[in-house]
Amino acid sequence: MHGNKRKKEKGDELVDYIRKGPWKKEEDEVLLSHVSKYGPRDWSSIRSKGLLQRTGKSCRLRWVNKLRPNLKNGCKFTAEEERVVIELQAQFGNKWAKIASYLSGRTDNDVKNFWSSRQKRLARILQASSSTSNSKSHRNKPKPHHLPNFQAAKLSSSSEGESSSSKPQPCSFSCNDNSEVIKMVALPDLFKPELPNSEPEEFAAPLEINKSSSNMEQTPFPNELQTDLTPFSFGDQDLLARIDDPSFADFFGPLGAYELGLAPQHTIGFPFFDPSEASCRMGSRLGISKSYDSVFDDFPVDMFDQMDPPSIPSKL
DNA sequence: AAGTCTATCAACCGCTCCGCA
DNA sequence: TTGCGGAGCGGTTGATAGACT
C-alpha cells in the first residue's frame, strides 16, 4: 500500500517525487516548522517549496491527525466520549468531523475509526448470535437468563443506501407491561430513532426509560421522536423486572446501562466538550473502575439468540 | 509456541465544497 | 458564469499489536 509515486521526465532526471507511507520524525519536524511559521495552511506550498516530498493533502492530514497540539493520541475513548459519539452519530449521521468537534483532542479519523470498529464488533456479535442459534450449539456458552424475546428488529446500516453517511433509520423497541411502557435504544446503531435535524442546542439524548413503578429519573422523548419511532414488542416481562434489579446494569455492562438510561444523563457540551473529567466523576459515582473497551464488551455472546435473524449488511 | 483472529491505528483515495481569477 | 486549485470530509485499506485457540 505504502509506495512511492514518482514521475520521471526530462530524461532520467527525477523531477517529481511524492513520498507516501509512514511519516518519519524528520518529516514531522519540517512540517511542524512550517506550521509554526505560517500556520496550518498553504499545505501545497510545502511541496512546491521543496520542504517535503509529500502532497499538501498528506501534510494536512498528518498535522490534523497527529501533530496538532492537544491531541489525545493513543488514548482510548472514555465511556463518556463513547456516549457522546453514539448520541451525536444518531443525530448527525456519519459527520465525523462535526462529531469530533464536540470532543476535545479527538479527530474525525479517531471518531471514524472508533465507530467503524464498533460496527464491526456489533456485526460480529449479531452474526455469531444468529449462527449459534441456527446451529443450536450453545455448549460452551452458558445462556444468560431473562433475555427479552425480541420479535423483530429492523436493522440499518451505514453502508447501505444512497450514501453511507447519515440517514439513521428510525427504530426502537418497546416493552409493554400493562400500562408501563419502556422505549429504549438498545443498540444505538441498530435501533436508532430518527432525530430531527436540529442544532446541538436542541439535542436531546435518544435514551429513555419510562416505568411508572420505577424511581428512575425520567427523560421524556420529545413528541416528534415518539412519533418517529418504529416500535415493536417483546413479551418477556422479566426484563422489566430486571430493570429494577441492581444487577441489571451488569447484565448489559456499564455502558449498556448508560444506553438503557440507567445511568445519570449528561448534557452534551458544545464544540470542545471535554468529557475526561466528567467521565472520571461519573465513573467513580457509578463505581466504575475499569476502562471500557466498548459498549458491547460485557454483552453475553448469544444475547440475540431469540431475535429473528437480521439481515446483516454485506459489508460494514 | 505457533497460527489465527480481531481491534486499532495511520494513511491514502476519491469526491465535494469553496474561494478566486 | 465558469473553470481551476486548494482544502476538507468520508470511505476504505493495509500494517501491526494483542488476544485467543
Automatic annotation (TrEMBL):
<dbReference type="InterPro" id="IPR017930">
    <property type="entry name" value="Myb_dom"/>
</dbReference>
<feature type="domain" description="HTH myb-type">
    <location>
        <begin position="18"/>
        <end position="71"/>
    </location>
</feature>
<dbReference type="Pfam" id="PF00249">
    <property type="entry name" value="Myb_DNA-binding"/>
</dbReference>
<dbReference type="InterPro" id="IPR009057">
    <property type="entry name" value="Homeodomain-like_sf"/>
</dbReference>
<keyword id="KW-0539">Nucleus</keyword>
<feature type="compositionally biased region" description="Basic residues">
    <location>
        <begin position="136"/>
        <end position="146"/>
    </location>
</feature>
<dbReference type="InterPro" id="IPR001005">
    <property type="entry name" value="SANT/Myb"/>
</dbReference>
<feature type="compositionally biased region" description="Low complexity">
    <location>
        <begin position="156"/>
        <end position="172"/>
    </location>
</feature>
<feature type="domain" description="Myb-like">
    <location>
        <begin position="15"/>
        <end position="67"/>
    </location>
</feature>
<feature type="domain" description="HTH myb-type">
    <location>
        <begin position="72"/>
        <end position="123"/>
    </location>
</feature>
<dbReference type="InterPro" id="IPR053106">
    <property type="entry name" value="Plant_Male-Germline_Reg_TFs"/>
</dbReference>
<feature type="region of interest" description="Disordered">
    <location>
        <begin position="126"/>
        <end position="172"/>
    </location>
</feature>
<protein>
    <submittedName>
        <fullName>Uncharacterized protein</fullName>
    </submittedName>
</protein>
<feature type="domain" description="Myb-like">
    <location>
        <begin position="76"/>
        <end position="119"/>
    </location>
</feature>
